[in-house]
Amino acid sequence: MANAMRKVSLRNLAAHKVRLALTVLSVVLGTSFVAGSIIFTSTISQSFNNIFDKVAIGVDTQITPKSGAESGFGGGQTLGVPDSVLTTIQQDRAALGVNKIVPTYSAGIVLADASGKAVQSGGAPSVGQNWIPTAESLDPGGSTIIAGGQAPSAPDQVLINKSAADKAGLHVGSHTKVVVESGNATPMNVVVVGIVKMVGDTSGYTSVYFDQSTARSLFSDGSHVASIQMSAASGVSPDQLRARIEAKFPGQYTVQTGDQVRQKEKEAVNQFLQIFNYILLAFAGIGLIVGTFIIYNTFSMIVAQRVRELALLRAIGSSRRQVTRSVLLEAFVVGLIGSVVGLVIGCGIAAGLQALLSAQGSGLPTGGLTVTWVPIVSCLAVGIIVTMISAYAPARRASKVSPVEAMRESQTDGAASLKMRTIIGAVLGVLGILALVTGGSGKGGGPAGLVGLGAVLLILAVVFAAPALSRPVVGALGLVLARPFGKLGQLARTNASRNPRRTAATAFALTLGLMLVAVIGTLGSSFKATIDKAISTDVTANLILTSSGQTGGLPSSVAANVAKVDGVGRVVQLSNVPAYLDGRQYVGTSPSGDLSKVFKLTMLQGNSQIGGNSMLVSDKELTSHRWHLGQTVDFTNKFGADAQVQITGVYKQSALAGPYLMGDAAYQKLTPPQLRVAFVLLVGTKPGADQGAVQNSIEEATKDYLTVKVQTRQEYASAQASTINQMLTVLYGMLGLALVIAVLGIINTLALSVVERKREIGMLRAVGMLRGQIRRTIYLESILISIFGALLGMVIGVAIGYALVRTFREWLPSIEAVVPWGTIVFTLVAAAICGLLAALWPAVRAARTKPLEAIADL
């Protein structure tokens, strides 16, 4: 009997190829992103590993500062290793077992291309460093100068790596510019004297080599080196040399062998690549969640259509367990096919992402796809398990229907079950609303978590209560939208409300996707409105200067150049101040002049004037540290310097001002010269000056810095909004996948619904309904279901987004929740259009139903 049931299941799948294809497609869309994300990150990781396997060849031991592995403004920027360490190692070379010693100097730079514009690295490093002659190099077979070039021997001579030279259109003999992104360096006019073929050269990566004395003057304070690399003398192993160096300088520096350096680079890259993996897996997760409901809905309809068939199997001896297994076998086959196809498409997604990022100059290396057992097993497991879980409930429900009950012309819709579901949904909904209201009334992490809990409860409430909601909501929508179509509209409204379970399950996929759209849209519109308001009210400067460079910093010399421009009245440079207090790092701001002339602070105590060794603090910071006006605070930096700073004023926390504003004298004590960099310049023009003309003059005066952007307040606000939009685009891309699956779910449901109502449609055709009228009925039905799902999603999403925004007042006191009405209206219209498009094929199929065949079909 079991063998016969398997045959029945497989033949049933083969007999309904369209239904099989639609169900498989919902599995494919989810599993393909699971496979694609894993294959993509594995491929890039392996490509980087291949590169780093060739890095630091010949290096037996390397010394770097202890914080050298950290990133960020305060953590990653270091003075380096003191020259005294280098001197000690040189003096004790024989005792330590050192053969060659190579000091390195490096810093972030910007290179101009042949047209005088900055070379865009696409996120890859852009560094300046000292050239190591072949005779002194620890790896003579590593980076080499291509024939026709020579090593730099003067301050204005440089070497450039080949990929950067090709991208910039530079060659031996080209004249160009280099800008050091920190300190007080000015743009340098240089000549390219050679092109370097280097190990691990990737698209986007830029390396500019100077002679050692020039690199030392540009990239250090004259008493530190970035790192010290050494090779071991004959008979001394790398581990022995590392141990001797550590013993010589116990606990002071990071000392690693070459193998440890390579492994650390690999780990850092793999950690960075997890960002891509999380994004892609989020795509997959959304796709699978929405796909799960579609698969569930599909199998529910399939089982409902086959209930008499399954009853016949029960009548001739099949057990409930065998019927359930029969349906689960079909789900297994669907999941297996969908997973295999998803794996193939996932390989294409990974290859496409790799090609796209390479074309955009992302700096990521290229190589063949790396397909291991991990994506294969993950894809198969996810696809099969999700499909079988989705099919289990319909299969179990079908097996419980008695043969006699199933043989009847119609079955009950489970009113008692629907009532219990509605009660559970109502309870969950009330709890969810209470959680949103309570969380939205507070601010900070705890209330935000409560809002998250409320969101989960509301989603569950929709799952349980949507069938009960569908009848009144769809009915009300039908009264408005279907009325102009008369009897056809009434019939469509009845069809959409006939099976509330099916309507709710079909609409839920759209509800979930559009709920996320509403949450993200509310967050985005609120943040943009807050930034726009802060810039328009707090910033009184006429022009704002920022950098589009890799570090986002402006050399100190930019401010001096801008101050000389005709029409400029006031220039205030804002610099980050990373300092330590009680062992914790705090990053504040230091203005170079009178900030009150270009920025509006709401003072609560004291005045807005900032002395050289004083500071203003926000009211939140004052309360957090239990400080008081007039108190002296002792800040330190990571290099051991300290500054005693007195609190002379308290201002209302601002989205732009930061936690504290420190005087220039204290800033210079805490920040070494080569690490001083501004993140923004606020420029006020003189009364009567033509702002447009001044802006053009400043752009001309700063063009040699390559990355300086000169913007009005409105342009700066638009740029910040554009940045938010770019982040939202990635999220909307994820949601687009969910909406695609949702539309496919509507197509699937309507197509199966047409099959289920074949006799009914045939009867309508027999009594005179035209094919065009049949199509319009299906169109209207689909539109009503789509708008129901969209409306439900937008209402819940806006409520969640509104409450979540209010919790951000802990960090942005001025933030206000802004409902994206434009997005809401656009989404509802788009939902109606999607519903119409989704109904095209099912409507045509329904219109082609032959009356006599449909009526005769049992």
In brief, what are we looking at here?
This protein is α+β, with helices and mostly antiparallel strands. The protein folds into four domains: 1-57 and 266-411, no CATH class; 58-265, no CATH class; 468-539 and 715-858, no CATH class; 549-706, Barwin-like endoglucanases (Beta Barrel), CATH 2.40.40.20.
Describe the structure.
It comes from Rudaeicoccus suwonensis. Residues 21-247, 503-700 form the MacB-like periplasmic core domain. It is a multi-pass membrane protein. By secondary structure, the chain is α+β, with helices and mostly antiparallel strands. The chain has four domains: 1-57 and 266-411, no CATH class; 58-265, no CATH class; 468-539 and 715-858, no CATH class; 549-706, Barwin-like endoglucanases (Beta Barrel), CATH 2.40.40. 57% of the residues lie in helices and 15% in strands. It contains 27 helices and 23 strands. It has a six-stranded mixed β-barrel. A five-stranded antiparallel beta sheet has the order 16-15-22-14-23. Strands 17, 18, 19, 20 and 21 form a five-stranded mixed beta sheet that branches. Strand 8 (175-180) and strand 9 (188-197) form a beta hairpin. Helix 2 packs across helix 11 (320-359), helix 14 crosses helix 15 (445-481) and helix 15 packs antiparallel against helix 24 (771-807). It is globular and about 100 Å long. The relative contact order is 0.12. The model is unreliable at 68-77 and 409-413 (pLDDT under 50).
